[in-house]
Amino acid sequence: xxxxxxxxxxxxxxxxxxxxxxxxxxxxxxxxxxxxxxxxxxxxxxxxxxxxxxxxxxxxxxxxxxxxxxxxxxxxxxxxxxxxxxxxxxxxxxxxxxxxxxxxxxxxxxxxxxxxxxxxxxxxxxxxxxxxxxxxxxxxxxxxxxxxxxxxxxxxxxxxxxxxxxxxxxxxxxxxxxxxxxxxxxxxxxxxxxxxxxxxxxxxxxxxxxxxxxxxxxxxxxxxxxxxxxxxxxxxxxxxxxxxxxxxxxxxxxxxxxxxxxxxxxxxxxxxxxxxxxxxxxxxxxxxxxxxxxxxxxxxxxxx
Amino acid sequence: xxxxxxxxxxxxxxxxxxxxxxxxxxxxxxxxxxxxxxxxxxxxxxxxxxxxxxxxxxxxxxxxxxxxxxxxxxxxxxxxxxxxxxxxxxxxxxxxxxxxxxxxxxxxxxxxxxxxxxxxxxxxxxxxxxxxxxxxxxxxxxxxxxxxxxxxxxxxxxxxxxxxxxxxxxxxxxxxxxxxxxxxxxxxxxxxxxxxxxxxxxxxxxxxxxxxxxxxxxxxxxxxxxxxxxxxxxxxxxxxxxxxxxxxxxxxxxxxxxxxxxxxxxxxxxxxxxxxxxxxxxxxxxxxxxxxxxxxxxxxxxxxxxxxxxxxxxxxxxxxxxxxxxxxxxxxxxxxxxxxxxxxxxxxxxxxxxxxxxxxxxxxxxxxxxxx
Lengths: 304, 372
Hints:
The structure holds two protein chains of two kinds.
Chain A: H1 2-56, H2 59-62, E1 66-67, E2 72-73, H3 76-107, H4 112-126, H5 129-151, H6 160-184, H7 188-196, H8 201-230, H9 233-239, H10 256-263, H11 270-303
Antiparallel strand pairs in A: 1-2
Helix pairs in contact in A: 1-11, 3-6, 3-8, 4-6, 5-6, 5-9, 6-8, 6-9, 7-8, 8-11, 10-11
Chain B: H1 2-27, H2 29-48, E1 52-57, H3 62-76, E2 79-83, H4 87-95, E3 101-104, H5 110-116, E4 120-134, E5 144-145, H6 147-155, H7 164-169, E6 181-185, H8 190-202, H9 204-209, E7 222-224, H10 226-236, E8 240-245, H11 246-251, E9 258-260, E10 266-267, H12 271-277, E11 302-310, H13 320-334, H14 351-362, E12 365-366, E13 369-370
Parallel strand pairs in B: 1-2, 1-3, 5-9, 6-7, 6-8
Antiparallel strand pairs in B: 3-11, 4-8, 4-11, 9-10, 12-13
Helix pairs in contact in B: 1-2, 13-14
C-alpha cells in the first residue's frame, strides 16, 4: 500500500518536472520565433533593397529628386516629411495627452464621468485610420484652408500641417492612457506628505506627481511617436503627396510610408521596386533609432 | 498593482494559447505536415482545374471584366477569377506563370519583356479616356483646352485661370483670376501613364524634363490617391484642375474640358470620341499609345488596356483544353463581350482595333500549332 502511494507520488513528480521543462522550452521557442521574425524582416528588406543600394549608394538618403522615369531615387524629401509630420504631431499632442493624464489620474480618478472620458479617449485609438483620413479631408482641410487664407499662404488646405493635426489626434490616447496609469501609481503617502507641508494641488502635481511619473509619461510619448512615424493611410489622404521639398509647414509634402503605399503596386522596373523596399528599410531603421534614443532618455530620467 | 496582475493574467492566457497551439503540431507533427501538403495540392489542383481560369492586373478594367466574366460564366460555365492588383502586379504574376492571363494599361517595357523571356501577346480589350476636370464655379460654359495650354499648366508656366493663352482659346468665357491648383495621381497608375504619354507627344519640354510613366516626378501640384483622390482635390479646391478617368468623371457628374486634337478640333470626351481615337491604322502587335490620335473626330487623351498571354500556350504542363479556354474567352471579349462596355462607360474597340486583336489572337499557339 505504501509502495503504491509512493509510486503515484513519484509519477506525479515526474509529470511535474516534464511539465516544467515543456513549459520552459515552449517559452524559449516562442521568444526565439519573435526574434527570428524581426531578424528575417530586416534581412528581407536588406536583400531586396540590394540592387538599389548598389546602384544609388549613399545618394539615396541625401538625393532630393524622386524620379521613377529617369530611375533616380532620392528619399530626402520623404525622410524630411516623415520626421516633420511626426514631431509636429508630437508637439501638438503632448499638452493634450498630459492634461488628460493628469485630469484622469489625479483630479477625477473614479466615477462615471471619469470612466466615460477614459473610454472615449480609448475609442480614439480604436477608430480605423482611413476614417481619420476621411474626416481630415472633409472637415479639417476646409478649416485649415480658411486659416491659410487668413495667414496669406497658398490655400492648399492639405499639407504637412494638416497631416500633423490628424496624427496628433490619433496618437493622443497612447500617451494619455499610459500617463494616467503612471500618475495613479504615485504612492499616496508621498502626496499626503506634500499636502501636510502645505503644498497646493498644483504644487503637488508639479513637484511630486510629475517627477515620479516622468518615465511613464516619456514612454507614452515614445509610443505615440512610433505610431506617428509609421501611420500611412490617414496621412496619404491629406498630405498632398508631392516629391517637392516643403518650404513651410503649410506646403504639401510626402512621407516614406505613404510613398510606399502609393507607388508599390505599379512599380514596374526592378530598380524602382528595390528603391521602394529600401525606403521601407530606411523607415524601419529610423523607427529603431528613435526608439533607442527614447529608451536612453527614459533611462536618464528615471535614474536621475 | 491591479493592472500588473491583469497584465500578467492576460500574458499567461496568451502563453497558454501559444503553448496549446505549439503542442498540437508537436504531438502529431505528421498529420500537420500532411494537411499542409494537402492544402498545397488543392491549390495547385485549383490552377489545374480547367473550369477556372486565373487572371490578374489592371484595376482600370476590373468593373468591365467582372461584368463580362459573369456573363461568360452564364454562357459557358467557365469561371474566371480576376484579381485587380494593378498592371505591374499582373505582369509580375504572368512572369511567374501563376495566372493564365494578365492585364495591363501599358505595353510591356523592355525590362519586363526581357524577364518574360518568351513572346507575349498583347490583345486590346477596350479603351478608356482620361479627361481634364476643373473646378471653376463661375464658368458655366465647357472650357476648351489646347495641348499647349495643358502642358504649360502642368509645367507650372501658366499659373492663373485668366492667363492670355487660356482666354485666347475660350473667347467669350469670363475667366476668373484664381490661381490654378494642379492635382495629379499619387499612386502609380495607368491613367498617369496615358496622360503623361500624351503630354510627351505634344510638348518637347515635358518630354525632356518629365517624361512618361505610371509615376513621374511632377514639377508642380498635389497628389491624390486614385481617381477619387484626384476628384476630391479638384472638387474641394476652387481653381483646381486634374486628370481622371472618363467613367469616374461621368458617374460623379464632374465638369470636364474639350481638348483640341491633332486635327485642330475641340473634342468632348465621350465613348464615341474615345472609340474613334482607336479607329486608325494600328500596328500589327497593337502596342501603341493612342494619345494624340490622327483620327479627326477622336478624343486625344486615351489608351487601350491589353490582356497579356504567352504566345506559346504550352507551358507548366498546361492542358490544351485550358489554353483553348483562354483564347476562346478573349475572342469572346473582343466580340460579343464588347456590348457591355457602353453601360460601364468604357469605349468599345473600334473596327480597326477588333481586326488587329483577331489577328493577334490567331497567332497564339499550342506546341507551335495555332489554337484558333
